[in-house]
From TrEMBL:
Pfam families: TSC22. The keyword Cell division does not apply. This is TSC22 domain family, member 2. Residues 82-100 have a biased composition (Low complexity). Keywords: Coiled coil. Residues 40-74 form a coiled coil. Residues 82-129 are annotated as: Disordered. Residues 117-129 have a biased composition (Polar residues). InterPro entries: TSC22/Bun, TSC22/BUN_CS, TSC22_domain_protein_2. It comes from the Eukaryota. Belongs to the TSC-22/Dip/Bun family.
Length: 129
């Protein structure tokens, strides 16, 4: 489609009308560029927050894995068998995180410290709009 000028009743003098349209187009373009730059900034900021949260979760996971290994090494085979059977039963009746064995439920920073690692404090789930 080719651009056609509006009917003559909508036209002003060509100079004023053309300058007015160009000025409006420039303002629209500037506004769109401003919106784009604000959105890009917000997205970059959110990406940085998410990267930091991922890093903290990896660190927390490592601490918990080491703690779990220590607890397993300290538990005897009867305790491990009992835990395994409880986990099997609970997975068929409810989500596994709702029922925890006392051996696993205790978050023991002393054990993590004993292993030469730092205990990472629990981080709240933070979401931003």
């Amino acid at each position: 489609l080719l651009w056609q000028p509006p009917p003559s009743s909508y036209c002003f003098e060509m100079d004023a009308s053309g300058a007015s349209v160009v000025a409006i187009d420039n303002k629209i373009e500037q506004a769109m560029d401003l919106v784009k730059s604000h959105l890009m900034y917000a997205v970059r900021e959110e990406v940085e927050v998410l990267k930091e949260q991922i890093k903290e979760l990896y660190e927390r996971n490592s601490v918990l894995e080491r703690e779990n290994a220590v607890l397993k090494s300290l538990a005897n085979s009867d305790q491990l068998n009992q835990l395994s059977s409880q986990l099997t039963q609970s997975s068929s009746t409810s989500p596994p995180l709702q029922q925890q064995h006392p051996l696993v439920a205790n978050n023991t920073p002393a054990l993590a410290h004993h292993e030469g690692s730092q205990s990472v404090p629990h981080q709240p789930n933070i979401t931003s709009a």
